[in-house]
Amino acid sequence: MRGATPPPDLVLQNARLVNVLTGEIYHTDIAIKRSRVAAVGSGYHAEAVIDLGGRYACPGLIDAHVHIESSLCTPPAFAQAVLAHGVTSVITDPHEIANVLGLEGIHYMLQEAKYGNLSMYVMASSCVPATHMQTAGASLEYDDLEGLLNNRWVLGLAEMMNYPGVIEANHDVLDKIGLYDGQVMDGHAPGLTGKALNAYIAAGIRSGPRVHHPGGNAREATPGHDDLHSRGDRRAQRARAPARRDARKRRPRVLLHRRLPPH
After folding, report:
1. pLDDT in tens, 49-58
2. Residue with more model confidence, 105 or 218
3. Do 76 and 116 contact (CB within 8 A), yes or no?
4. Are 94 and 105 in contact (CB under 8 A)?
5. What pLDDT sits at residue 99?
6. pLDDT bucket at 178, cuts 50 / 70 / 90
7. Most confident by average pLDDT, 82-96, 120-134, 198-212
8. What is the DSSP letter of 104?
9. Torsion sign (Cα): 117, 118, 124, 127
């Protein structure tokens, strides 16, 4: 912000900033450049200035795992409900609507979220249907998930509920994991421990609401466990092997051509 650095686009003056790290509340100005908070403090000037008159300013909450359609709301209605409680961003796995409509359902959710006040990001639904025993209106395969890779609002692969398929090195499951290698991959492994958990983690899954770390047995849930260098590592290599993916006969990549608002 000094010297030849361009000035901020907007300055929020006379704010009472809630510091969620220290618990302090103090008077300050907030400088914004594009969609980012560039600086906090006094002495910043911009063409656009808003005097907050001592109103509170605090970071918005991020809901890191949600299924919006499970609320029985459209994305705009869901946004109206949660914004009032401080949630400004959500990361959603739309696998419920995908179970009914497939890719069309995911495209609908992305379209409905455009230009709203809630920032909505999507994880590509990995398990549609959740199991081969489920009766569903659609299924998402490798080729379908590949079409979501270039969408700027898709952050990675949603919770891998088919953990038996990961552990047993099911080809279709590992192909989906390999497709999103290097991106965020969410887990779903209730009660999984020991060698099975090691194999699941070794496939590349690093987060999730239901990866079980049993109390008093932390060593079994640690990726550094020796078992990762045997059964788990071999499965991880298979998940990342590009040769299998390149050899598959696939339909042309489907790209989502939409103009979305910048963040």
Report:
1. 999 999 999 9
2. 105
3. yes
4. yes
5. 93
6. very high
7. 82-96
8. H
9. negative
DSSP assignments along 67-86, one per residue? -GGGGT--HHHHHHHHHTTT
What is the residue extent of each domain of the chain? 10-57, 60-156, 162-245
Superfamily of domain 10-57: Urease, subunit C, domain 1 (2.30.40.10)
60-156 CATH fold? TIM Barrel (3.20.20)
User: Are 79 and 118 spatial neighbours (Cβ–Cβ below 8 Å)?
Assistant: yes
Give the tokens for residue 91: 């990361």
> Which two tokens mark 8?
């901020």
Cα–Cα nearest to 37, from 80, 85, 1: 1
pTM: 0.71
**What is the per-residue pLDDT across 149-170, written as a single tens digit (0 to 9) for each?**
989 999 999 999 999 999 999 9
- Say how far residue 71 (Cα) sits from the centre of its chain: 18
Q: What is the dihedral of CA 234, 236, 237, 242, to 10 degrees?
A: 150
Q: In this structure, how many other beta carbons lie within 10 angstroms of the beta carbon of residue 11?
A: 23
| Residue 201: φ, ψ to 5° | -65, -40
Report d(CA 2, CA 222) in Å as an integer: 46
In sequence order, which residues have a C-beta less than 8 Å from that of residue 112 and are 6 or more positions away?
A: 74, 75, 76
pLDDT at 65 over 70: yes
